[in-house]
TrEMBL record:
Record CDD domains: RAWUL_PCGF5 (cd17084), RING-HC_PCGF5 (cd16737)
Lineage top rank: taxon: Eukaryota
Function, in words: Component of Polycomb group (PcG) multiprotein complexes; the complex class is required to maintain the transcriptionally repressive state of some genes.
Organism: Parambassis ranga (Indian glassy fish)
Presence of the UniProt keyword Repeat in the record: no
Cell compartments where the protein resides: Nucleus
PANTHER family: POLYCOMB GROUP RING FINGER PROTEIN (PTHR45893)
One Gene Ontology biological process: nervous system development
UniProtKB keywords: Metal-binding, Nucleus, Repressor, Transcription, Transcription regulation, Zinc, Zinc-finger
Record-given protein name: Polycomb group RING finger protein 5 isoform X1
Classification via SMART domains: RING (SM00184)
Major localization listed first in the record, in broad terms: nucleus
Entry's Gene Ontology cellular component terms: nucleus
Subunit structure: Component of a PRC1-like complex.
Amino acid sequence: MATTGRRHLVRDFNHFITCYLCRGYLIKPTTVTECLHTFCKSCIVQHFEESNDCPKCGIQVHETNPLEMLRLDNTLEEIIFKLVPGLREKEEQQELEFWRKNQPKENGQAATESLRCQKFGAGGDGGDDDADAGGNDDYHRSDPQIAICLDCLRNTGQSGENTVTDLMKRFIRCSSRVTVGTIKKFLSLKLKLPSSYELDVLCNGEIMGKDHTLEFIYMTRWRLHGENTYPMVLEYRPRIDFG
């Protein structure tokens, strides 16, 4: 005689798919790599503004910057969306409404920079807010993020003059998958450089290849050399012709 297995309800899995902080379903589930506890991204980021400890187990996540120890769990997010009917659509609608209500005004410079950085993180140029050079609507928002500082090195360039200047805003936050090539494109557009003008991007005095990602540079050039400061500092200068 065949037996029918017990039918599981969504609430049977609530312990695994709800956030310890807000008690709601995990939205953009983000895991603390030190202890593997998972929370909503917005919940844990807000928590780390006040504390460096995991809110669930109390372990110190990082002495100075716990945000470095966060990783998005896209697999868990997909599982939650499959378990909870309508959750994905509800969240997408709420996000659209949020951005619609918070469009940058003339004096909303911070909001404008935030939107530009998100587009820059996808390989966009950080130019017009309506432009998307990457052709991707999510702007890599689900990627691990990294904060960097872009400093200008005072060197004479290809024309014998220092045509490269400091950025008005040197600190940006973007996807860790952004490449040096994209950084150069971003700098060229922000500094209004001619298309033929070449830049070098350096970390700790070493010129970085155009295909190096920020994550690769952080792991192999910044952290590996004992740099404990945050954000990571990249320097740029006119390309020097040794010929």
